[in-house]
Specification:
Blueprint (H helix, E strand, L loop, with lengths): L4 H12 L16 H9 L3 E6 L6 H15 L12 H13 L9 E5 L4
Parallel strand pairs: 1-2
Helix pairs in contact: 3-4
Amino acid sequence: MIGRKHEIGQLKHLLQSAKSELLTVIGRRRVGKTFLIREVYQSEITFEFTGTQNGSKNNQLRKFADKLAEFQNINLPLQAPKDWGEAFHQLKIYLTGLPRSKTKRVIFLMNCLG
């Protein structure tokens, strides 16, 4: 990726850290933020969710449950969580049920703002 050497280095450094990390990527629309994250972390992304611009809370929670079912290879829809606390609890259960990994896992959450 042209012109992203510094950013790629920073992202890879976070994977090699001995502790958990939280990364927030902000910037103008259409500059390649999502593409950069997916390219660098493609094999480490364990869960990915994109919010819906101007979506209601219930719609967002329904989509979250659908995406969680997709990552778990469940063909039946999961019950939508009642709030974000329950949604993240469901995500925690999914993550703790995964086989141990020698590399970090990446949870990629995207927000769609207008």
